[in-house]
Amino acid sequence: MVVEAKGKEASITPKSRTLPFLPCSCRLPILLILIIAFLFGCDNFSLYDELESALNTEPGPLELNPETAIVGIGKQVNSMASGGELPYTYSLFAGSGFINAESGVFIAPGVSSDIVVVVTDNVGDTDLAAVRAIEPLWIDPQSANIEEGGSIQTFTATYGIAPYTFTLISGPGTITQTPPNTADYLSTTIGTAIVEVEDSVGSIKEATVTISPIDALLINPPSESVVTLGTVPFTASGGLGSPFFVFSVLPPVGSGTVDPTEPTTVYHAPVSPGNATVQVTDGGQTADATIVIVPLEKLSISPQAVKIKVGESFTFAASGGLGPYTYAVIDGDGTIGPDTGFYTAVKKHKDKVQVTDSLGSTDKATVDVKN
User: For the chain, which terminus, N or C, has the lower number of CB atoms within 10 Å?
Assistant: First the structure.
């Protein structure tokens, strides 16, 4: 204000003031405050000066924050506008989801997608923000049970934002990552391990691995007797399991051989009697089976001779030699099961029955068929 002295009197002339540009809803209350101050003779206009300074501050440009955001599907983001001229109106420029037009609260859709949020102020200025809705980071499996001593469990990361980083947070074992989204956990000793995966935006998911003691390695049968050149099948169980089983015949050389198959193998006896040991290992444990190799007896068919009537039947048996055995009628009209030795007389005759073993040895029997 301006104070003018005229003799002994003084008059107060308010200094000319102008209110800056503001919406009417803001200007009117401030104007009333200034009028009241003047009417009640307030000669301290610092309040007016402060108000004028505040009112003369130009609003900044309209801005929408955050400018970019990554959010899980169905989750919420609070959009905050500043600058420009109130009031603000929020809407979706692209994509789907829900946004509150007044508050700017945005709820992402239930599927992965890209969304653009727009804010508009009272004079039509706009600003945009980009939101990406994603499936939350996932690790599979979330829990696993394996055995100690080298068992492997593979973990796979999905969703979130690649690239992924796998880490062994606690417990025994090691973790080896295989890009782009898998990692192998290798067990060592018993216990519990925690495997963590983190994506590029810091989301984290954990999985638990329980490491148990290894079952005892077993070979079956644990002992067996076999003739020279005979065979014995063996199976393995327990331990680290297939495909880690390895079968072998222990020294001395000439104790026989095994087929290179697993978890079942076949032992082949040598031509000479004796003893042999078949061993299976899984890389950590071993199990042994004892084999007694006995001499091969001469092939024999029993009985060597039989008398029956037409239409009657009889079963022959074989021993010695090396099975399996094959039966046949080599002379006569009777019939016989090649695997069973079950013979049936057809007509009067002296039939001859022969048995053959797997080595080609033979023996014969006579059947005297009567009417």
Answer: C
